[in-house]
Amino acid sequence: MYSARLMELFHTRVHGGDLADPTHAADAGVPGQGPYIRFAFRAHDGVVETARWKTYGCPAAMACAEAACEWSEGRSLAELSSATPDLVTEWVGGVPEGKEHCPALAAQGLCAVQPVP
Predict the structure, then answer these.
(1) How much is the pTM?
(2) Between the chain's N and C termini, which has fewer beta carbons within 10 Å?
């Protein structure tokens, strides 16, 4: 069963979609081979101003991506690498058994952020 917080994040999806002119991005998972998340960030002076996500995945993956973007805004790019699956699980109020890969993907993406060439 999904938590109330996870469902709230899934239904709002404030950060879902494209981001024009991102300065940084990351992918977690492999497109076409199961769930994956693509993050895009716009940062200024090393601080994330805007974060967006796109995913192929279930409501839990979408909620984890939404929570990751929500948490990222206002934080330094360096701080993003401190994300862990356990933290993402906390942000969404827990995930059902069998969905542990969703917070892991979101954390993996935050830890893989690179400048856009």
Answers:
(1) 0.95
(2) C
pLDDT tens per residue, the chain (117 residues)? 899 999 999 999 999 999 999 999 999 998 888 889 999 999 999 999 999 999 988 999 999 999 999 999 999 999 999 999 999 999 999 999 999 999 999 999 999 999 999
- Name every residue whose Cβ is closer than 8 Å to that of residue 38 and which is 6 or more positions away in sequence: 25, 26, 27, 31, 53, 54, 55, 109
Strands of the 36-44 sheet, one edge to the other: 47-56, 36-44, 24-28, 114-115
Strand partners, 38: 27, 54
CATH code given to domain 4-115:
3.90.1010.10
Radius of gyration of the chain (CA): 13
Angle, helices 101-111/59-72, rounded to nearest 10 degrees:
30
Extents of the domains making up the chain: 4-115
